Amino acid sequence: MQQKEFLDIILPVKDKLFRLARRLLVSTDEAEDAVQEVFLKLWKSKDKMDNYKNPEAFAMTMTKNYCLDRLKSKQASNLKIVHNNFHHTDNIERSVEANEGVEMVLRLMESLPEKQKMIMQLRDVEQFEFTEISEMLEINETAIRVGLSRARKTIREQLIKQYNYGIS
Amino acid sequence: MELAKIESLLETYFDGNTTLEEESTLRNYFANEEVADHLAPYKSLFAGLSIAKEEVSQRELQLPETAENSRRMWYSIAASVAIVLAVAGFIFSNSGMSQDEKDALMALNKTKETMLMFSENLNKGTEPMFLLSENFTTGTDALVAINEITLTANKVLK
């Protein structure tokens, strides 16, 4: 497989990989690093990629595994994830000015358990089918629906709580 | 769209049972419609989810050199090695030649010396030959004189 062919397949997926990494690792820098690492790994195993019927799902699975490993090693070394760059993302910040509630949604998503966070990211943000999410996260569809329902309900509860607090 | 329909879609949504199409209906509804107060949090929810999709990676992707590039790299390495070998070989073999040349020169000089010595000795050898030939000439002169004497004697005798 040549570089051009490889990039044709992988570049359209880049931002989706980045957003998943961003959701899990929170830090933009670390998410960029993760994307870079995953692309290098994909590039090294590019000859095997022909065997995968869905390279996008394959890339997504690799990103998920890479980020979860990073989080594990962070926990092991007792490093805290710093939520420091939430305000540095231009396009989010600009929209936040228009709607404070939007920032709240993103922050609430950060506090979800990792599995629910990934499911909600892939379904509600990236709008993948359940079969695709199942392949990407290596979780069966029923478990995905359950996780998704829990994630959405948690966000709803928190949002309503915040709204009531704001009003009263 | 009727409020009741949206509310029932929302329930399905929170149970994790909506299709992608239904979810897009919800997104569009909350993005475009004025919503009742009790639905306001959902406006934020769907707006937030849409905004989350706008974030993109800013960093340029850096892949290691391509297969063609690495092949080209190996060619250039091979070429450099060949050139280095050729130059080194030339230098080494050249200095070997000069060593040979030195040997050859030495041999030549030795030969010259020998030849000179030989020729000197040869000259020394030829000197007595001159003497000999001189004496020989003196001898022949004497013989000529003797011949003349004999001739005179013969005349006298006649």
The major sheet of chain B is characterized as:
none
Order of helices and strands of chain A: HHHHHHHHH
Seen as an oligomer or otherwise, the chain set is: heterodimer
Q: Please provide the count of β strands of chain A.
A: 0
Residue runs with pLDDT of under 50 for 5 or more positions of chain B: none
Q: Would you write up a description of this structure?
A:
The complex is a heterodimer of chains A (168) and B (158). Chain A is mainly α and 168 residues long. Chain A is built from nine helices and no strands. In chain A, 79% of the residues lie in helices and 0% in strands. Chain B is an all-alpha fold. The model of chain B has no long low-confidence stretch (mean pLDDT 84). Chains A and B meet through helix 1, helix 2, helix 5, helix 6 and helix 7 of A and helix 2 and helix 3 of B.
Topology, element by element:
The complex is a heterodimer of chains A (168) and B (158).
Chain A: H1 3-25, H2 28-44, H3 46-49, H4 55-76, H5 90-98, H6 100-110, H7 114-125, H8 130-137, H9 141-167
Helix pairs in contact in A: 1-2, 1-4, 1-7, 2-4, 4-8, 5-6, 6-9, 7-9
Chain B: H1 3-14, H2 20-32, H3 40-52, H4 67-157
Helix pairs in contact in B: 1-2, 2-3
Keywords:
heterodimer, A: 168 residues, mainly alpha, 9 helices, globular, B: 158 residues, 82% helix, rod-shaped
Brief characterization of the structure:
The complex is a heterodimer of chains A (168) and B (158). Chain A is an all-alpha fold and 168 residues long. In chain A, 79% of the residues lie in helices and 0% in strands.
